[in-house]
Request: fold
Amino acid sequence: MPVVRVSVTLKPSLLDSAGRTVADALHRQSFTEVQDVRIGKLIELQVTEVDEARIRQMCADLLANPVIEDFSYEVVQ
Amino acid sequence: MPVVRVSVTLKPSLLDSAGRTVADALHRQSFTEVQDVRIGKLIELQVTEVDEARIRQMCADLLANPVIEDFSYEVVQ
Reply:
């Protein structure tokens, strides 16, 4: 059965406070090569059939908030 | 500057209650082709240099909980 992997990320213009906290924690553990961290969601949908128009509709209506988030997807199996 | 995209997912044997809730919501909106939903995290690290051993260490120590989560990563830029 195909799996659709949806990535939902905060729009680049928005401050990612959770990412900032993770970056600070990494720095405290001496991972100083990390310059920036952004945290998003990874949603794996197992579907009976792949209809790209419907997948885009699911993302825009329910999985992502288009006001503050971007989404992309790929069919992986 | 390279970007490392880390995917953190719940181990397959564990029940994903958030994913179950999203699947139910999709079904209520008549997206009945969705059989299962799993929700994970997508963490983008902007780093000055890519050292795979250190990236694996960041994942195991801080970004993922190896007791209940799996992780993978790819260098994207």
Observations:
- The first strand of chain A starts at residue 3 and ends at 10.
- Residues 24 and 32 of chain A are 9 Å apart (CA to CA).
